[in-house]
Amino acid sequence: MLPGWPRWPGWPGWRHLPREARDTLFLLGVIAWTVLPHASHLPGWCIALTGVVLVWRAALAITNAARPGRWVLLAVLAVAAGLTWWSFRTLLGKEPGITLLVVLMALKTLELRARRDAFVVFFLGFFVVLTHFLYSQTLPVAVAMLISVWGLLTALVLAHMPVGQPSLPKAGALAARTALLGAPIMVLMFVLFPRIGPLWGVPQDGISTTGLSNSMKMGSVTALALDDSIALRLRFDGPPPAPETLYLRGPVLARFDGTEWKPLPPRRGAARSSSMEDAANLRVAGKPVHYEITLEPLRLSVIPLIEATATAPQIEGYSVSARGDLEWVADRPLYERVRFEADAWPNFRHGPVRAGPELAEYRALPQGYNPRTLEWAAAFRRRGGFDAADPGPIAQALMQHIRTGGYTYTLAAESYGRDSIDEFWLDRREGFCEHFAAAFVVVMRALGVPARVVTGYQGGEPVPVDGYYVVRQSSAHAWAEYWQRGVGWVRADPTAAVAPDRIVRSHRLARQPGLMAGAFGNVSPALLAQMRAGWEALNNRWNQWVLNYSRGQQFDVLRNIGFAAPAWEDLALLLIGTLSSLALAGAGWAWWDRRRIDPWMRQMDQLRHTLRVLGVAAEAHDAPRALAQRARARLGSAAQPLAVLLDTLEQQRYGRAAAPRPDPRLTRRFKLQARRLRAAAHG
């Protein structure tokens, strides 16, 4: 302990503890480190009980007190099982199983009496390490679990050695070397082992609690704007599109009940289509923009893609189809990170060019809501002489009204009441993008023009990080579309009229930073931005190279090494063949190593042979000191030079300053002295 530090009652100091107690405390620390990341998703009582048991076991190790009896452990285990049932109403499944596993590992430390008990704790610890990846596969979790594996391997080395041998640093170094020796096998298994899903489902990494939704109320997109987590990353082949054209289309909302916007239900008899040209009457012109997109886990099956992506993206493990509102929809929510490539045409038109009965749904407004806005729209029509058959001038006039009507683009708008459009459009005139888009659509419908709300993302970080443009949840956006005869659906973004910097330069509104972040940012905002960009680039490499390594990439590896049309059979044969070759190579090395002659043994064999020639009995188990005594007894004072050399050999091999290899000069001097002794005896 450091001078001046308080001494705990019963604490003798780390250096004065018995080695067995120090090893036990080290193991308990490793277990605590391994369990700690589970604190965010396991019941609080589980973490508290685990902590109490570990502290209890540490106190027993320090004081060398008796361990509790088996009935005490069984009682605690029964209480833990009861609390698990109370928490989850079952003892089966991911959360109950991991909860009981953590408690069981902690209780097992109270039974540490023999080496086999320690081995059970080690193996339970390795299994707990694996369970973390059922919740998260992020880089910090991987680094934390790598430290846990090293700690468990170090404890395993200590358990195999006599007490006090080796020291903790040497055991840690040996564990690290052992892990490095196994690293090539680990890499091989990662590259070639078939990609399979986790045991209990997919980790929920990155699923934002405020992500895009299939519905929209006033203020819902504002909540998204406060979430600075990454929603997706984009990388373009060639120049990227201008920020004002970078719209990533998500859910399209057309049904309004007065307070909430929702998508229209699928039409009866509508067939799934893999072509947007058929599903949404998409017409494109010009050259496409080829891009790669990495989507963080979503809560939705609607895939936010750049407008307008014409062909179905190939997402491994998912079936993707087109909808008539220009949406691409997967067969289930994207609860995992996915990466794929696609082509988008910035110059496009979509939707029917002639009026049909399906457009009536886009003119509907709920009865009894926002009466003052409807009156305003009627007066606006009379004043401007607008005709619903020509909606272009109407949209331009509404944009001009927003631009000059005293509206404010803000995140600080207060909540609105029942007639939210009335309050926003005519009274407060402050809001976020969803307020402007919803009001625009309601006014257009009140004027007889089909219109709808579109949600998604707009713009992104202006400077790419590691070649990828980052789009955050705070880039979530809502805009409008109206229908025009002969053209189809036309995008109209009212936010561009009131806050052009948001659309043209992707300048997002942000909440005030906290005290520490604000102080650090004020001192060095450039350094803070650089540190954040560096971390995100590192995390992106982890996502791209490790988490997104898929079956398709495995087959790409096979193609690169000569397989023309790789299949699962080729992958399995290559894996089995490589592992078999490595196993044979390891067996051959073990056979060769077993038959190698230790240079110390070779030297001892030569010395024993020389002694036998002189008539001194020398057995294979005799140590150098015993041979020196026997030579003195057999040959008298004449054997003193030989005995001195044997004593020197004893020190070289077994002394505190032991030599790494035998000294060949000692062998030569020993043989020379033996020849002189024989010559003197015969002379």
Description:
The structure is a single chain. Helices cover 49% and strands 12% of the residues. It has 683 residues and is of the alpha+beta class. α5 (115-132) packs antiparallel against α6 (139-160). The longest helix is centred in the C-terminal third of the chain and has 28 residues, at 568-595.
Task: Sum up the structure in keywords.
single chain; 683 residues; five-stranded antiparallel sheet; four-stranded antiparallel sheet; 23 helices; disordered N terminus
How would the blueprint of this fold be written?
Layout: H1 19-35, H2 44-63, H3 70-88, H4 94-108, H5 115-132, H6 139-160, H7 168-192, E1 216-217, H8 220-225, E2 230-236, E3 247-253, E4 255-256, E5 260-262, H9 276-280, E6 283-285, E7 289-295, E8 302-303, E9 305-306, E10 320-322, E11 328-330, E12 338-344, E13 347-349, H10 371-384, H11 391-404, E14 408-409, H12 420-428, E15 430-431, H13 433-446, E16 451-458, E17 469-472, E18 476-484, E19 488-492, H14 495-498, H15 500-504, H16 515-523, H17 525-547, H18 551-560, H19 568-595, H20 599-613, H21 624-635, H22 640-654, H23 664-682
Parallel strand pairs: 14-15
Antiparallel strand pairs: 1-5, 2-7, 2-17, 3-9, 3-16, 4-5, 6-13, 7-12, 8-11, 10-11, 16-18, 18-19
Helix pairs in contact: 1-2, 1-6, 2-4, 3-4, 4-5, 5-6, 6-7, 7-19, 10-13, 16-17, 20-23, 21-22, 22-23
- Give, in spatial order, the strands making up the sheet with the most strands: 9-3-16-18-19
Structural class: alpha+beta
Number of helices: 23
**Fraction of residues in β-strands:** 5-15%
